[in-house]
Automatic annotation (TrEMBL):
One GO MF term attached to the UniProt entry: oxidoreductase activity
Family designation: Belongs to the oxygen-dependent FAD-linked oxidoreductase family.
InterPro entries: BBE, FAD-bd_PCMH, Oxid_FAD_bind_N
PANTHER family the UniProt entry points to: OS08G0158400 PROTEIN (PTHR32448)
Key word Flavoprotein present: yes
UniProt keyword terms in alphabetical order: FAD, Flavoprotein, Glycoprotein, Signal
Domain FAD-binding PCMH-type: from-to ranges: 1-130
Pfam families: BBE, FAD_binding_4
Keyword Flavoprotein listed: yes
Name of the protein described by the UniProt record: FAD-binding PCMH-type domain-containing protein
Length: 416
């Protein structure tokens, strides 16, 4: 079998970040991490932020090009929604900005994946305003504490809350420290843009079943919240955000779904049954609510199409530390069965997926060519819905020879 030549561009040294307080913008080179961006903004302001993800070691280039979301998505949308300019090197070696590349190309890589259209070396982003005090909580509930009923109720509430609050539900299996049977734990984790004095009445009105009390809540500055997100104590030095080393490196498989109709309790219970299967190390999922700003932005404003009509997104995740092909196959087979089980309960025609959780189970390109439009559109419409056709047209215009390609890149018409 012949091997196609390829090369990898290492952008690690492109890490300069320039924050402009007068315009509330920043230029961020593509090799920077989210932690480095948060650090640079926090150095200049305690009330400016950027709406991106929680993992401080994630690179901005991949996050922004696929959409990028975090605790501010219902207030300010995605990271990609807040990109206002970029520097891109195209297949002909030209260095382009928004004006010289044109609006179509600028549209394409903000949520359509920068790896299909060129090399983005820097991003200009709008910074957003946050209050001097924010409040967080993480309330765990196990099955005997009505975790299933609470998640079922959460579905009715989460996407209808005011845009100043996001409550995500993180579900995992925990083992008894006394050697008893394992159980399911659901942790309701929240960011509220304000103080606890406003949060508690809001929760009592909208989600009293959770039983949130003052002792569950922690008030922080936005800077301290950046540390909290990264898993550090709030009194840690801000410098820890500059650490580019992931806190854990394991084998894993992830998949994603979008939910448009309420799941019945029986569907949740069926998921828990699969979490209890033997020889699966640490299954988990996170349910991230939509609503607020995400309902207001058009599906076609950028390639990322998952907007109004979605109650929440599910991220399924299973890591494993056991070595060997058998362990990998066992865990991958498990998450595929879970994904298959969820088919009746999630989005349909297409069954939508988030491009930043790349899932090669959905289909791959033949990198040597000969992939049909029908084949590519199967996974393309899951990621991009009706925006896929426009992405193909733009790819054909800017990279007709398909210089930039990978297993799930956008293909030009010449490749069909």
């Amino acid at each position: 079998m012949s091997v196609l030549p390829f090369f990898i561009l290492d952008l690690i040294n492109l890490r300069k970040i320039t924050v402009d307080l007068s315009t509330k913008t920043a230029w961020v080179q593509a090799g920077a991490t989210l932690g480095e961006l948060y650090y640079s903004v926090a150095e200049k302001s305690r009330t400016l932020a950027f709406p991106a993800g929680a993992c401080h070691t994630v690179g901005v280039g991949g996050q922004f090009s696929g959409g990028g979301y975090g605790g501010l998505l219902c207030k300010y949308g995605l990271a990609a929604d807040n990109v206002i300019d970029a520097e891109l090197i195209d297949a002909n070696g030209r260095v382009l900005d928004r004006k010289s590349m044109g609006e179509d190309l600028f549209w394409a890589f903000r949520g359509g994946g920068g790896n299909s259209f060129g090399v983005v070396t820097a991003w200009k982003v709008n910074l957003v305003e946050v209050p001097s005090t924010v409040t967080v909580f993480a309330v765990p509930k196990v099955l005997k504490e009505n975790a299933t009923k609470l998640i079922h109720r959460w579905q009715y509430v989460a996407n209808k809350l005011p845009e100043d609050i996001v409550i995500a539900a993180y579900v995992n299996r925990i083992n008894s420290s006394q050697g008893g049977d394992p159980t399911i734990q659901a942790t309701f984790s929240s960011l509220f843009l304000g103080g606890v004095d406003r949060l508690l009445p809001l929760m009592q009105e909208s989600f009293p079943e959770l039983g949130l009390v003052n002792d569950d809540c922690i008030e922080l500055s936005w800077t301290e919240f950046a540390l909290f997100l990264a898993g550090f104590p709030s009194n840690a030095s801000l410098d820890v955000l500059l650490d580019r080393t992931p806190q854990s490196i394991t084998s894993f498989k992830a998949k994603s779904d979008y939910v448009k109709q309420l799941l019945p309790e029986t569907a949740l219970e069926g998921m828990w049954e699969r979490f209890f299967e033997k020889d699966i190390e640490s299954p988990s999922l996170i349910m991230v609510p939509y609503g607020g700003k995400m309902d207001e932005i058009s599906e076609s404003s950028i390639p990322f199409p998952h907007r109004a009509g979605n109650l929440y997104k599910i991220h399924y995740y299973v890591p494993w530390t056991e070595e060997g092909e058998e362990a990998s196959e066992r865990h991958i087979s498990w998450i595929r069965r879970l994904y298959s089980y969820m088919t009746p309960y999630v989005s349909k025609n297409p069954r939508e997926a988030y491009v930043n959780y790349r899932d090669l189970d959905l289909g791959i390109n033949n990198l040597a060519g000969n992939t049909s439009y029908k084949q590519a559109s199967i996974w393309g419409r899951k990621y991009f819905k009706n925006n896929f056709d426009k992405l193909v047209r733009i790819k054909t215009e800017v990279d007709p020879a398909n210089f930039f390609r990978n297993e799930q890149s956008i293909l030009p018409f010449s490749s069909w």
